[in-house]
Amino acid sequence: MSAAKLDAETEELKHKTVSKDLRLAISKARTAKGLTQKQLATQLNMQPQVINEYESGKAIPNNAIIAKIERALGAKLPVDAIGLAPAGCTLA
C-alpha cells in the first residue's frame, strides 16, 4: 500500500487510541494526588510525553503502562473504555 493510500485511509488502518473516559480518569486521579504530568512520569520512570499522550488521547493503549499508572495513582481506570477487555474484566 502506498503512503498516499495510507494517509487517505479511514478507520480501517488506524490504531486504537485511549478513550475519553480513560483520559479524564488519569487526569482526575493525577490532579487529585497533586501531581504534575512530569512528576507522575518521573515516579513511573517514564518520559513526561507518555503521560501527556495518554491524557490528550494520542497514545496507543498499552495494558502494562495503564496498570503502572493505576498503581501509582491508586485509582481503578476504565479498562473496558479502551476496548482491550470486556466490561467487568480486570487486568491480571
From TrEMBL:
<feature type="domain" description="HTH cro/C1-type">
    <location>
        <begin position="26"/>
        <end position="82"/>
    </location>
</feature>
<dbReference type="GO" id="GO:0003677">
    <property type="term" value="F:DNA binding"/>
</dbReference>
<dbReference type="GO" id="GO:0005634">
    <property type="term" value="C:nucleus"/>
</dbReference>
<protein>
    <recommendedName>
        <fullName>HTH cro/C1-type domain-containing protein</fullName>
    </recommendedName>
</protein>
<dbReference type="InterPro" id="IPR001387">
    <property type="entry name" value="Cro/C1-type_HTH"/>
</dbReference>
<keyword id="KW-0238">DNA-binding</keyword>
<dbReference type="InterPro" id="IPR010982">
    <property type="entry name" value="Lambda_DNA-bd_dom_sf"/>
</dbReference>
<dbReference type="Pfam" id="PF01381">
    <property type="entry name" value="HTH_3"/>
</dbReference>
